[in-house]
Automatic annotation (TrEMBL):
GO molecular function: thioredoxin-disulfide reductase (NADPH) activity
Classification via Pfam families: C1_2, Thioredoxin_8
Catalytic activity: [protein]-dithiol + NAD(+) = [protein]-disulfide + NADH + H(+); [protein]-dithiol + NADP(+) = [protein]-disulfide + NADPH + H(+)
Stretches assigned to the Thioredoxin domain: 1-174, 325-487
Lineage: Eukaryota, Viridiplantae, Streptophyta, Embryophyta, Tracheophyta
Keywords in alphabetical order: NAD, Oxidoreductase, Repeat
Matching InterPro entries: C1-like_sf, DC1, Nucleoredoxin-like, Thioredoxin-like_fold, Thioredoxin-like_sf, Thioredoxin_CS, Thioredoxin_domain, TryX_NRX_thioredoxin_dom
Gene source species: Gossypium mustelinum
Protein name (Swiss-Prot/TrEMBL): protein-disulfide reductase
EC number(s) reported in the record: 1.8.1.8
Family indicated by similarity: Belongs to the nucleoredoxin family.
Length: 570
């Protein structure tokens, strides 16, 4: 075992790794199975290898490992592919527990030096990480995780040529897309009903089909299922040629059953095509309803919002229908009032700090900020104190202003604790209006701050950015106010040099740059708007610090110079 004695990773012909030097050490020429059996490294000759960098404490690893096990099992009959587990676990008990579920080999946990030295040559910056090598030790790809997720065993033997072939086939499939190319796989030409009955995919030809990506464990998805079920049932009653095929991303049978909000169809639970279709349609959010037209072509990438807001009016989901819906939305926005936004049935109030009900009608004529936030959200907790400070400053100047907290908290206690630190109004916890407001303003993440003007019309959905950039000066958040601020900012820098040299940063020139927030590297105070900045070194000088010496040098005794103007010292 002289080759391994140096404990370095050797290569043959410059780009092929020698398996023995790669995987052995000075006192070990074997790998292990989870039952303790030792397997000689020499037995790997002629095989393709996957080096699997993973750990039991890593959530993404635990989710990916079952995928890799499935592919490994499918390929095991070929006899020329092996996976080597390179553990990043911190103790042997964790290693053993995780490895016990794996059907492949591993570098012994005890050989920490051999495990660690593999990180550098294979650019292991994070896990899971899967390096695929051919039988000569040549690296085929370091993107094995993505390849396994995307192509599974179909990617074998994982050569660049094979992967390109699969990509070309995908492109061809998109050009020649039909309901069959979407839903039929090599082993299945049917979809299933809620009771498990099989329905041939061919029966969907000529229909408008909604491919519904769902997970009942995700609340927005679970809520939407009820709405989609209503629309589905009404369209069926009307005799429309419309069908829904659910692509469940749930992990268990019970959750899968719960996703059947109506007697629609589905791919079988954990069908291999589920993840493949999520990639094919570039799934970004749940719920998603991809609309496939009667000709098998994609009509719309996600009609979920339209279905949620307009119901059956959105049918048949054509470009012409969406253009019509856009005009309806424009008309609705033009007619929007505070009461049309915040009043729903008998819910015509918000809560005051004393718990008293404040009528929405009493807020008409004020500028309102709708604050979507939650106690469990770290960015929300970081932003709330800033908003409290801004709120107090604006209220001092203008009482015709209010903030309404719209909570995404998970329980009443969390809501109460979080709201106790806020000086403004709120929707009650778990208020039914929260869902409709989130849909109306397309709230995809929190914190989010929506500004409504005195007429009730939406001024901006980017009020959070304005508050962070300009504080209370952003009020009343209108375009006109932003133009005024912009003019003030430009006037502030009038006469300042575009570039300057400073002895506190001799390496590079400092460039006058717009910076929202920074800490001056000279005075260590917070700065905003303008900085003399070195991007390469991330070095900031506040203008007062950067220009201090320059103005002193320009001035004669008894005079003070500021930019282009020198005045007598008082």
């Amino acid at each position: 075992m002289a080759d391994a004695a140096n404990n370095v990773v050797e290569t043959i012909n410059g780009d092929c790794h020698d398996f023995k030097s790669l995987l052995s050490s000075s006192d070990r020429d074997f790998l292990v199975r989870n039952n303790g059996d030792q397997v000689k490294i020499d037995s790997l000759k002629g095989k393709k290898l996957g080096l699997y960098f993973s750990a039991s404490w890593c959530g993404p690893c635990r989710r990916f490992t079952p995928n890799l096990i499935e592919v490994y099992t499918e390929l095991s009959t070929k006899g020329d592919f092996e996976v080597i587990f390179v553990s990043a676990d911190e103790d042997e008990e964790s290693f053993n527990g995780y490895f016990s579920k794996m059907p492949w080999l591993a570098i012994p946990f005890s050989d920490s030096e051999a495990r660690k030295r593999l990180d550098e040559p294979f650019s292991v910056m994070g896990i899971p990480h899967l390096v695929l090598l051919d039988e000569n030790g040549k690296v085929l790809t370091e993107e094995g995780v993505e390849i396994i997720r995307e192509y599974g065993e179909e990617g074998y033997p994982f050569t660049p040529e094979k992967i390109q072939e699969l990509k070309d086939l995908e492109e061809k499939a998109k050009k020649e897309q039909s309901i069959k190319t979407i839903l039929v796989s090599r082993s299945r030409d049917f979809v299933v009903t809620s009771d498990g009955s099989k329905v041939p995919v061919s029966e969907l030809e000529g229909k408008t089909v909604g491919i519904y990506f769902s997970a009942s464990s995700i609340k927005p998805s679970a809520d939407f299922t009820q709405k989609l079920a209503e629309v589905y049932s009404k369209l069926k009653e009307n005799g429309e040629k419309f069908e829904v095929v659910m692509i469940s991303l749930d992990d268990d049978e019970e959750s899968f059953r719960q996703s059947f909000g109506a007697p629609w169809l589905a791919l079988p639970l954990k069908d291999k095509s589920c993840e493949k279709l999520a990639r094919y349609f570039e799934l970004l959010t749940l719920p998603t309803v991809v609309i496939i037209g009667p000709d098998g072509k994609t009509l719309h990438p996600n009609a979920a919002d339209a279905i949620d807001e307009h119901g059956i009016v959105a049918y048949p989901f054509t470009p012409e229908k969406f253009a019509e819906l856009k005009e309806i939305e424009k008309a609705s926005e033009a007619a929007q009032t505070l009461e049309s936004v915040l009043v729903s049935g008998g819910l015509d109030f918000v809560l005051g700090k004393d718990g008293a009900k404040v009528k929405v009608a009493d807020l008409v004529g004020k500028t309102i900020l709708l604050y979507f936030s939650a106690h469990w959200c770290p960015p929300c907790r970081a932003f709330t104190p800033n908003l409290v400070e801004v709120y107090k400053k604006i209220k001092e100047k203008d009482d015709a202003f209010e903030v309404i907290f719209i909570s995404s908290d998970r329980d009443q206690a969390s809501f109460d604790e979080y709201y106790s630190g806020m000086p403004w109004l709120a929707l009650p916890f778990n208020d039914a209006r929260k869902s409709s407001l989130s849909r109306k303003f397309k709230v995809q993440g929190i914190p989010m701050l929506i500004a409504l003007g005195p007429t009730g019309k939406t001024i901006t959905k980017e009020a959070r950015s304005l508050v962070m950039a300009h504080g209370a000066d952003a009020y009343p958040f209108t375009e006109e106010r932003l133009k005024e601020i912009e003019a003030q900012i430009e006037e502030m820098a009038k006469g300042w040099p575009e570039k300057l040299k400073d002895e506190r940063h001799e390496e590079h020139e400092l460039v006058l740059t717009r910076r929202s927030n920074y800490v001056c590297d000279a005075c260590k105070e917070n700065g905003q708007v303008w900085s003399f900045y070195c991007e390469e070194c991330d070095f900031d000088l506040h203008p007062k610090c950067a220009l201090e010496k320059e103005t002193k040098a320009d001035a004669k005794e008894g005079w003070v110079c500021d930019g282009e103007v020198c005045t007598r010292a008082s």
